[in-house]
């Protein structure tokens, strides 16, 4: 479902150009559970932001579900993020003013279809991640692991076909991290959602069907 | 994008930054408040002037000698003057005219017992003058048509007070010097509120009979005639008959003014006045608007992370722009509502102390609501645009 060919990304800082991605080639099949590992600073997050259409590469070709991604139409990119991609970040990125339930419902606000079943769907998802009893709590009343569960529910609410998780367990202890990882495995196994996880933790990587190693801006073959 | 969710969001985010919101509100409240106060005071003054004018009666035409354009007559050639007999002949000649009241303004030093009366002004009138100007007598009697060429005068209430202060007791029978003539007071008119729509200040007048005035005033000339229209006849008809009459006379050119014209002219002037006041108020509104813009810009900067999160979750640029626009419009509207209250309150106070009749103008309120949402959109647009143009990843990475 993802095909990246010679993806390059460079940042210009003053007069010097810094190459972060130096020709990434990567293919991800539908239903894969893939982890990307690599040293800090090798460009994993940059790559994930490109895959998640949050950032645009300097050059290269990126095919998503068989179609070349066009970066000219910003609204179309938003729509793809909204409909097909679920994000899970290391820092959770929940909105602190909203309750857990409202955070989960957030992606649905940006859909043109006005569903009446939003509430039920969001509650179901919170139940699924084991957070139903905290639905009306705000993020600052939740532990890190709990916040990450809410974030996963939020990533799932739009029924995405791809979940991108950038060090989802990075701020959690091994046990809670393991529970989060179990959630991803279940989603992948039961619903066939493609999951891409960036991690430093070999224990996490070992649980994935495939591990891609990244070094200095390229994916090792 | 669901509007109600957006509204709720906007309210919540405004409430979460209370201090800042309140500061911006104060600016907009003062801005809208001053526009509303200015405009509604303008309206009140306008209504007041019209009311006073209408109280005088809307059935009175004013005929003035037109000094501007006598046909064929150059400025050096003095135009012919109106004759008293011609004026007296108006009602028989013009059936639509019931009564006429010619008058002559005089000049000259006025004194009593050797002391100058600074604020008094002489005027020569006929018996019909009292009625047509809605004046009444407080003491003694008014001039009658039997007082032709007499040395009698009737004085306004303020002149009477002045005389009393100077020791005139009894008032009636006191003698006032006008120029070189001594006039005997035979009556005093009742006080009328100052600032009315008359072209003279009734309380400060010394009236003599018109025949006397024409004789004793220096350069006296019959220049103004008031004509009351007969009940049942229209102002236009009376005006036509008068115009025909004066053109038959082949005397001086006259200009006939109807109350409608004066009202229209007054309204035009008052509109300008109201507009001017509104413009002055708008300056503070601009200051308030800049305050809103400032608050919104700070809000955008502070919420970059939130913007990034929303963008990652699928918010389009337009959604972000809408969110911030709604926020600034709500801010301005709430400010506007308070501003309306403040503005109306201020204009009530002004009207109260100036003893004008207060009226609540719906226009001013609509103006307040309209202007404040306009301010919200105008001054919120730039910050909202800034927010919408933020790159998702840059916004997400900022703290
Ligand atoms: N906006 C930017 N401007 C300039 N350089 C950047 C920018 N963003 C990232 N970089 C650089 O790109 C490189 C890769 O960053 P990236 O965040 O992708 O690393 P990472 O592999 O995710 O590291 P970590 O494991 O520590 O999260 C780093 O050297 C970083 O300095
Ligand atoms: Mg990273």
Question: What's the quick description here?
Answer:
Chain A has 221 residues and is α/β, with parallel strands linked by helices.
Write the layout of secondary structure elements.
The complex is a heterodimer of chains A (221) and B (399).
Chain A: E1 2-13, E2 16-28, E3 33-38, H1 44-51, E4 59-64, E5 67-68, H2 74-84, E6 85-88, H3 100-109, H4 118-128, H5 144-156, E7 162-166, H6 174-191, E8 194-198, H7 202-206, E9 210-215, E10 218-219
Parallel strand pairs in A: 3-8, 3-9, 6-7, 7-8
Antiparallel strand pairs in A: 1-2, 1-4, 4-5, 9-10
Helix pairs in contact in A: 3-4, 3-5, 4-5
Chain B: H1 3-16, H2 18-55, E1 60-65, H3 84-88, H4 90-93, E2 97-105, E3 110-112, E4 115-116, E5 121-125, H5 129-132, E6 137-140, E7 152-155, H6 157-165, E8 175-178, E9 181-189, E10 205-209, H7 210-216, E11 224-229, H8 235-249, E12 254-257, H9 259-302, H10 304-312, H11 317-354, H12 362-389, H13 392-397
Helix pairs in contact in B: 1-11, 2-9, 2-11, 2-12, 9-11, 9-12, 11-12
The complex binds adenosine-5'-triphosphate and magnesium ion (MG).
